Automatic annotation (TrEMBL):
Keywords on record: Lyase
Primary enzyme class: lyase
Organism from which the protein derives: Nonomuraea dietziae
Protein name: Enoyl-CoA hydratase
Alphabetized NCBIfam families for the sequence: PRK07799.1 (NF005864)
Pfam families, per database record: ECH_1
GO molecular function annotation: enoyl-CoA hydratase activity
Amino acid sequence: MDVLPISTPHCRVERDGHVVIVTMDRQEARNALSSDMLVGLASAWAYVSEQPEVRVAILTGAGGTFCAGADLKAMGTPSTDPEVQARAAAIANFHWKGLLREDLPTKPIICAVEGYAVAGGTELLVGTDLRVVGESATLGLFEAKRALFPMGGSAIRLPRQIPYCHAMDLLLTGRSVTAAEALAMGLVNRVVPDGQALAVARELADDVAASGPLAVQAILRTYRDTLGLAEPEALKVSDEYGWPVIGSEDAKEGARAFKEKRPAHYQGR
C-alpha cells in the first residue's frame, strides 16, 4: 500500500488499487481534529474526486480511536509544517472541506470506527456513506450539552438520515450512544467485533470498487442533487444522470460478464 505525499503529520493517506484509506493519526489526543489533520482530510477528499482510478475511500482513526471531536486550540493554530501551511493557504475553507461539510467527494466514503467517535467524530461519520463500527464504540453529538452547535452539518443531515425522534434525541440531549443503539437507529450499517471495523470496511470497499464506477457515482450524485425536490422534478434529474450510465461501455461489459458468468471488468467509460 502506497503512502501518498498529500499525507500530513496528523493524517495518513494511503492507496491500494481502487481504494484510498484515510487515517486520522493524532493518538496522543484521541485523534481530535487539528489544522494538520483537516488539511490532510481536505487534500484526501480532493484526491479521491480527481483520480479516475479511485473508486471508494475509507475513513478511520489510528490507535483504536476514531475521533474525539474538535480541539479548538489545535484547529486555530497553524501547522508548523511549511508544506501544510502552504496547502492550508491554498485550499479555501479547508476546515469545512476536511469535515465533509463542503465539496463532498464524488466517490463513496466508508467509515470504520473503533473507540470514540464523538462530537466532530460523529459529524464526520454523518458525512460518510457507509459505516462500520466496533461493538464497544461510543458515538454522540455532545455540542448542545456544552452550549455549542454542531457546525459540521449534523443539525441538518442527521434528521434526513435517521427518524426525526432519534435525531433529536442525539442532538438535543447531547448524550452518548452505544454501537448497538446506533445500529438500531439506522445511524450505522454494521456492528462488528472490536478491532475488525477496518477489515470489514475494506471488504465493503472492495464490493463497491467491483461495481460500475459510473453507476456508483451517478447514484451518489442523484441523491445529493435531488434533496428537497418533488418527485417529478427529482425523476428528471435521475433520468439526466441515469441514461448516460445505461448507454455506457461499462453497462455493456456488465451484460457480457453476466452472460459469460465471469467477473466484470469496468473501465469507467
